[in-house]
Design brief:
alpha+beta, elongated
Length: about 150
């Protein structure tokens, strides 16, 4: 009986150097900045064999979000207008809010979860999430799920 494939979401800082370089090489190929695998591998300082070893096993998160529904969890400072700022970023990115859940603020902090439809997103997903991280009111933001609600 064949074991079912399992997938994991991991942060970039725990990836091996080879895996990170494979992602860089794949980006060069996708953007036309490298003519072929040999060229891409050379540009990032990676052997071709390492590229082929990992190429079908590692992908940027935004490439695997197939349902276009993502849930973001925020840990926020309780300041007037913070939720409005979050929703403006979502709107400006061309996304649609599906659900919002906000806890009652305690000790000046609150949790918010947003489930959003990213079908029409107009920027890279990582850049989208980074916009939230740059907000002074945002203590932490995590992508906690993707797929159907």
């Amino acid at each position: 009986m064949k074991r079912q494939e399992q997938f994991y979401l991991v942060k970039e800082d725990v990836l091996s150097e080879s895996m990170t370089k494979v992602l860089e090489a794949k980006t060069l190929l996708e953007n036309g900045q490298a003519e072929n695998v040999t060229d891409a591998a050379e540009k990032v300082g990676l052997s071709r064999s390492a590229f082929y070893k990992y190429r079908n096993s590692i992908f940027p998160f935004h490439k695997i979000v197939t349902e276009n529904i993502v849930t973001l969890f925020f840990f926020l400072e309780d300041r007037t207008g913070t939720l409005t700022k979050l929703l403006n970023i979502v709107s400006q990115a061309g996304c649609n809010v599906l659900t919002i859940h906000q806890t009652i603020p305690l000790q000046g902090k609150a949790n918010v979860s947003l489930s959003i439809d990213t079908n029409a997103i107009n920027r890279k997903f990582d850049d989208f999430v980074d916009q939230f991280r740059q907000m002074a009111e945002v203590i932490k933001v995590d992508v906690v799920g993707s797929g159907g609600l």
